[in-house]
Design brief:
heterodimer; A: 334 residues; mainly alpha; 14 helices; B: 302 residues; 73% helix; 0% strand
């Protein structure tokens, strides 16, 4: 197990190096360049040259990359041009917001998707199964921002049940320690803030969670159907074990293997979807941050933000692989 | 005449495995109601896109009815304007119709690009194996480390706004899917007896690759390309929604149309509904068709 984990970790290093170089080269290739972005569009060529010299931008590219890597590894991601604050500080505020949203979306997708998939499998090829199949097809075909707009229109604009933007009402007071508002309000024992944070979270989480919900439902359905036809289940049935016990011990346990992988694979989808969902609901997470940075040509934020998102993505994928090899020891050999 | 020129075609015939017969695939496709619905939707969208100038009563950028708005946004569906008017007095129906052109064009070109580049990379990696395979696949791994939509956003930021830029961005971000897929099937085919015999008989590598290996590795690509069309349409709309698409008013794009209407959600929700419905319908069509094709090509899956 340890050897497998070590091997996977070592394999991730060249990928991360490649990614960091790609992001580095990308910001250098952006129109205008970093010096121009720092000084604004009306900067004189002399001023641009001076800034380039002082930042070492006139040195060879690989020297710059080395310096850049050195800074990144010490946690220095530079200053945001638009807010003049360290990128790392903004990251500390923004990242928990996206984590909170993604976890809530995943909770919605898994909590509803697995039971729905099991029900669909139990009613295979009957009307309930068809309904769930059509539902998940539409769910997969629905762009996340369109669903977000529909939810916002129905439950915030028309019915007025839930707030339409933000993470917390401006009047709600909350001591922010982790920037995960739900955790913060629980730590400080603030019931009003907890309720407010949950109310703000519902619509974005449903919007972001619907595509994963559709995928998890379908995967669970086919996995349960597959396992139900296997020999060991037939044996269990022949031995006269209670059907409910067979479902739990023999079917679900094995069917969950592919489901766990698929859940892990949704991370990229969640991170992509978060950009669009956060834009619709003005959710102050990584998505709106990167989006605003593209508009404002805030290169430090783009460089740091994208690098961080990719790092999270790589680490989550690694954890999924490791988790999977714990559940299914055969993977380690392959 | 070389020996190879004489013997080659005979050997190709003799050493090829039973391939997936296209007649069987069509037959199975015809028995699948979902696939037929998908095909119908895709055909409808293609017809609308091709004949857009004939179907749309107005040009998409015409603000002919601006005075009809009277400061309010925006009149809903009526006999004169089936889907109502937008905030600039443009006929919504005409814009949806022309929007089909933009979405389809971007999706087709970007998927073709991703398919061509990805298949080439995958084929080379799968055929040669060893160090070539390692290098190509590490590059693919690096690309896969980015969530694909984020990758596309980065490329658009680099290339600037516009349709071509959109196509390149979405195309490049989808290369890894096809590269991995084709490499996988090439590796599977590489160790079969018929490829081994073709090699042993001394056929040149290019012939083994193009005649014996590629045709047998290609059917998963067709399925993946159809499903990638669905993703490409969603990604196009997503980039448009973020304001990263074309800003030419004569090229209305469904995602951008949706983004413009968020301000009028209270008074004119229909403006958000129609472009959104157009996206869902088109994507659903490609998803249904793709699933149907997969089941038709490999019936064991059902």
């Amino acid at each position: 197990m340890l050897r497998y984990a070590a091997r996977r970790l070592i394999l991730a290093i060249p990928v991360l190096l490649g990614v960091s170089f790609l992001v580095f080269a990308w910001t250098r290739a952006l129109p205008g360049g970093p010096a121009q972005a720092l000084l604004g569009e009306r900067a004189t060529p002399e001023a641009v040259a001076a800034v380039e010299r002082s930042y070492g931008l006139d040195r060879p590219l690989f020297v710059q990359y080395g310096k850049y890597l050195e800074r990144v590894l010490t946690g220095d991601l530079g200053l945001s041009v638009s807010t003049q604050r360290p990128v790392l500080d903004e990251l500390r505020e923004r990242f928990p917001a996206t984590v909170e949203l993604s976890l809530a979306a995943m909770l919605f997708a898994v909590g509803l998707g697995i039971p729905l998939g099991v029900i669909a499998a139990k009613h295979a090829r009957r009307s309930l199964d068809h309904v769930s199949l059509v539902g998940s097809l539409v769910g997969i075909s629905m762009p996340v921002f369109f669903l977000a707009l529909i939810l916002k229109w129905a439950f915030a604009v028309k019915l007025g049940w839930l707030p339409s933007i933000g993470r917390l009402d401006v009047r709600t007071d909350l001591h922010r320690r982790t920037n995960l508002f739900i955790v913060d309000s629980v730590i400080s024992g603030n019931g009003t803030a907890l309720w407010d944070a949950i109310r703000h979270l519902v619509l974005p989480a449903i919007a972001l969670g619907t595509i994963p919900l559709a995928i998890i439902t379908r995967i669970t359905r086919s996995a349960v159907l597959d396992v139900m036809q296997e020999d060991h289940v037939r044996t269990a049935r022949a031995k006269g074990i209670a059907p409910r016990l067979i479902d739990r011990r023999h079917v679900l346990r094995n069917a969950l293997l592919p489901v766990v992988t698929v859940i892990g694979l949704q991370t990229g989808l969640l991170l992509s979807g978060a950009i669009l969902t956060e834009t619709v609901f003005a959710w102050g997470g990584l998505g709106t941050w990167v989006y605003d940075a593209v508009g404002a040509r805030d290169y430090a934020v783009l460089q740091g933000g994208i690098l961080f998102v990719v790092l999270v993505f790589v680490v989550v994928n690694l954890l999924v692989d490791l988790g999977y090899s714990i559940i299914d020891p055969r993977i380690r050999v392959g | 005449m070389t020996v190879e020129a004489v013997v080659g075609p005979i050997l190709d015939e003799a050493t090829s495995p039973p391939t997936v017969r296209s007649r069987d695939v069509l037959l199975r496709l015809r028995r699948n109601p979902g696939a037929l619905v998908g095909l119908g939707i895709v055909a409808l969208v293609v017809v609308v896109a091709v004949f857009a100038p004939l179907l749309a009563p107005e040009t998409p950028s015409s603000r002919a009815y601006l005075d009809r708005l009277g400061g309010r946004c925006c009149p809903g569906p009526s006999a004169g304007h089936w889907l109502g008017l937008d905030e600039l007095g443009r006929d919504e129906f005409s814009r949806i119709v022309f929007g089909a052109r933009v979405s389809l064009l971007v999706a087709i070109v970007s998927v073709a690009l991703a398919l061509a580049a990805g298949a080439l990379l995958g084929a080379v990696a799968g055929y040669f194996g060893g160090i070539v395979d390692s290098v190509v696949m590490r590059l693919v791994d690096i690309m896969l480390a980015f969530p694909s939509f984020l990758f596309a956003i980065g490329l658009v930021a680099l290339l600037g706004p516009g349709l071509w830029q959109l196509m390149v961005a979405i195309g490049v971000s989808n290369i890894p899917i096809f590269a991995r897929l084709l490499r996988g099937s090439m590796l599977g085919v590489r160790n079969t007896t018929y490829v081994a015999s073709a090699r042993v008989l001394g056929l040149p590598p290019r012939r083994v690759l193009l005649v014996h290996m590629l045709p047998n590795a290609v059917s998963p690509l067709i399925v993946a390309a159809t499903l990638a069309m669905a993703t490409a349409i969603i990604e196009t709309a997503g980039l448009g929604f973020l304001g990263l698409g074309s800003n030419d008013p004569s090229q209305p794009e469904w995602g951008a149309m949706l983004a413009n209407t968020t301000r009028f959600l209270q008074t004119a929700p229909h403006l958000a509904f129609f472009p959104g419905a157009a996206i869902v319908l088109t994507v659903l069509g490609f998803n249904l068709l793709g699933d149907g094709l997969r089941e038709a090509i490999d019936p064991r899956l059902t």
